Amino acid sequence: MACTSGSVQKVADKTVAAKAQIDKLQAMLQAQEAANKTKFYADIDSHLADAKIKDAREVAYNSDIKTEYTSEFSLDKIAAVVTSALKAAVAATDPAVPNAATSPAAISAYADVVNTVAEAAKSSSTSAASMSFSMNRLSPGMYAFLYASSVNIKDVDTFGSEAVTSTAIYYRFMQSIDDIKNQAKFGEAIIDANNLLKMKTLQAALTDDLASDKIDIDEWTKKDAAYSAAIKVIQKRLDDGKFNTAQPLVLSVEHGFGAPVSHSFTNGSAVNQAVVRAAIQKLSAKGEAYKVVIETSKARLASVYY
To answer: For all residues of the chain together, what is the average pLDDT?
Structure first.
């Protein structure tokens, strides 16, 4: 499919020479299609490798051409064609895979990506040229790739003083089952990380309860052991999943976790640490019976356990 902007089409409708020039431009791009497709696919393979995605499968591929004056920036035909193809591609993904749907908003936003890539291909700037390829993760498991290449012609007698550009846009949509699974694992890890923080908060509160005489040392010992066992299980799942505890855990209400959470596992919780320090101070005045609790609490503080 070839799209022509309204202003260029008006000239083409009036003269045979203009139509011939447009046909020539589009023929030039069509002649380059095999080479451009090869480059496009090579760039896709490179980007997928960088993203450590090894199972991507093609859901759809196509290419289209649009012709316009170089200064024009049309936001209609090609973008509509690509986003329409994207909707069809999303519908064609494996129904057996529990994939989070690509939202209408994401598909709508992708129209702007299409036009940005097309404009980059028209530009003579080196910096803009790097944007003539695009990889976007639209939802877990769904990737969209774009590549654009342009040729132009300047014929004062036919089109006036401005050059006319034909831009070929290649688009490919791919699905990765591994990416969907990894997303699910990441979601599970976020739940575990949030729960790990909550369990340690309960453990700090338990020591505060002991220091405040709300529970006795026997109850503290039993509950602390139970909390420690639960924490160990959660921590193992996080370690097995290689969850990056160097990155802060930041959760908002939109994540579905209720109250906002902002926690650094590297620095620990200042609130929990303060609670435990205050409890240690109180327990230190209660005698030898609380020595194990005090030593355990101090060791945990030293290791940024809380």
So the answer is: 79
